[in-house]
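During the second half of the funding period, the structural biology subgroup turned its attention to how the target accommodates small molecules. The most pressing case was iron/sulfur cluster, which had performed well in the primary screen but for which no bound structure existed. We therefore specified the complex as follows and requested a full 3D prediction, including the ligand pose.
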Amino acid sequence: QDYKTSEKAWWCPGCGDFGVLAALQKALVELEIEPHNVAVVAGIGCSGKIGNYINAYNIHVTHGRTMPVALGLKLANRDLTVIAAGGDGDGYAIGMSHFLHAMRRNPDITYIVMDNRIYGLTKGQTSPTSQTGFETKSTPDGNLERPVQPIQLALAAGATYVAQGFSSNQKQLVRLIKGAIQHKGFALVNTFSPCVTFNKVNTYDWFKEHLVDLDEVPDYDPHDRVAAMRFVAEHDGLVTGLIYQEPESIPFEEKLPGLGRRPLAAQDLRPDKEKLQQILAQFR
Ligand code: SF4
């Protein structure tokens, strides 16, 4: 099973999203998860097309709403491997509040953000992760705002698996996605995925020059949240690898009282008639 579909990817030649797609497909193959047990929830934007190219269940949701749909899926069927995917605009602008609440709840969902620091689908406007001073059609005199720092935000919000990849470092990205899927709880894999058409600053070469690879930092401890925050801040968020993982993470759905282990569709959810009569009697 290779997880490929017959649909030809619509992205511009050289787009970083090709690398993310290839890494996700490889991770699923290596984990030997059957396609009927995988659901991809994709947001709006160039990256949101990813679900069309993976042979699994796919829901293409409205802008910024990958998190609530992914959570609903997971609660309805815990046997599903639920993967949410989208861009920096989808996740860190309109989807920001869902993102924060998903992290503090900690459902067993993998969230892959293809971060190219620009809005590509709408032809090149400043996004939440665009750097201060970045010039686009929407900010011709340079971006006045400070960028969202997704990794620091995730660490501060209590995310239990925080990783960052680069679409051209396939080996590392496959490993990070596999780790995210295997992690019991919410897993963020923010991935630098260059937009070759509209972002002429944050190019492949720019990332290669600026990224610090944690695989080459021998004494880095991915189980120390505070140290992780300090390290990432010191390197302006430009760090790839497994940044933090909580070893004893318990997913949200396992703590919910009364939610059966089996998929909702396989459970008898009809109310107990006798109990219902007793409750109604209290209001007579
Ligand atoms: Fe990729 Fe940018 Fe083209 Fe969109 S516009 S497909 S993000 S290269």
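Two results from this model are relevant to the next phase. Residues 11-12, 15, 17, 46, 116, 120-121, 195-198 surround iron/sulfur cluster (CB under 6 Å). The first helix runs from residue 17 to 30.
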